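Annex B.
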Amino acid sequence: MIIGEITSVYGIRVKGRFYEKLPPYMVKNSNVFLGPKINSYVKTNVGLVSVVCQITGEEVSVNDKNQKILELNVIGSIEKGLFSQGLRYLPLVGAKIRLFTEDDYKSLFVSNDSMNLNIGNDLFEPTRKISIDLNSVIPTHIGIFGNTGSGKSNTLTKILQEYLNIIEDKRINSKIAQTLLFDLNNEYGDNAITNLQNKEVIKLTTQTQSKKRIPIDYSKLSEDQLGVLLNATKKTQMPIIKRALRNMKGEFDSEQKINSIRWAIINCQKNAIYTIRNELYKYIMGLEDFQFISGRSNSFIDKSNTTVDFDNKKHFDFINDIEHQSLEKIKVIEPKTWLERFEFELIYSVFQYATHGNNLEFVKPLITRLKNRIKDFNKIFNESENEITSLSQKNIVVIQLGQVNQEIRELVPSIISDLIFDSMRKNDRSKGIKQIRNIVIDEAHNILKPSKESNDIASNSVEVFEKIIKEGRKYGVFLIISSQRPSDISETITSQLHNYFIHKLVNKNDIKHIEKTVSFMDKRQIDMLSVLGPGECIISGTGFIFPMFAKIKIVDEVNEPLSRNVKLLGDEGIFSNKESKKIENKAFDPF
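Bipolar DNA helicase protein: predicted structure tokens.
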């Protein structure tokens, strides 16, 4: 349907005019056409090719106030039913401007070659559904950003829900496709995203032992991963961890360790002996018999209160003919699990470090952190030899971190993600990638802060995810991050995302960050971020021909995450009579 003509062309700056004022909807030959408006699409022909333009502005003609002038941007062309982005063709002055047909819209928005995710409707043409290509979005890194209440949680839920529906329809095994969601605020439990029977929810807590724990094979942890877990310093504490791991590669030699301990006693290595006596009392027996004499470097008192002094000759005799009863009573019990063995070997490595006359001041904090970590790990991890890439038989696993301490909240996502990445990297890729893992981080600004603004644990966590976002695509590992503060996330991560769903952003730093790191949006679209309404977003990235404005469909109430805004009035409001009576019947507790 012809509505006007092109009046000027200056490169990509194109202007046209309407023949007449047009209503919002028009009917021709029983076909309904949407009237042109800002951000809608029109076309003009160059031979057999249709040049696609987007209306970006409108003004009244200076010469004729009844005539409207259009400002157009060329975004591509349609040739033989296929859309191509770019400036291969430009409009001609005098060419007719036509409204888009249904087939034209299909060329722009619908891929006939793959499954699609139906996520909502066009913001400016509400009758037009928006479907996104599964192949162009799910196997990519995705960012979902927006202020609190802007609808980003609903968008994340909708994308994952549509994806899981396709997986369920095709009966895809969890070993082939699995999504792992790190839920920092415990919003995605129960029936959020999908019904509870279709997913695995692991609710972690460091207050007591978690009912469900994460299966983990500690032996698969690398030196660097253990260093992250223990927040070890590189120069003084990492060598201790490396020595402990070297010791673990061999058989547990109790006799050798006993002889080393006897040697340390004979040489009056007080700090070394006190360290293992206090920290390894579960595994080493008999050290409680000894007390070193203050001020005498070559003497100790055994359990019988006998003072033993050594000179060089007695050293020689004693080591070669150990008959002292107290020394003979020293026993070493072999640890049973990998984690217990690592605890033993690390503290024993500190003991060895001390026997060489080194100052323990810089390495003893490592023992304290290890003890604290083991307490927390036993509450959230279950030692297992199963592959970390399949945490469950379900296609989606939600790990809730709302009741763990801050350090564990920062550690768990990075360690589990790193193990998954390492496991996927070992797969045979000679015949292509046969598995996919999508790692979802909700409230990502809490754990993906730039290194210069983070503590050591958070900094190491960021390095893990920066590695995944740089190399994960090669091995079938992809990130989906959701955040209300994109400016608090490492630029290395946000700049290397493939696709973006950006809701309303008001903070200037956030908008500036998006403008700096997202190369798929122009200034006009960036300027609209602050005026978007709830549920409205700009979709942009490698999976889309050009940025789209969308109204994301609200998921069914039963599948909503626990992220609703507080409602005061109405049937479900906290000021309603029904809710007030419930509270009145309870004793007041300000805490």
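The radius of gyration is 33 Å. The chain has three domains: 2-109, 130-217+384-559, 223-379. Further annotation is deferred to the next reporting cycle.
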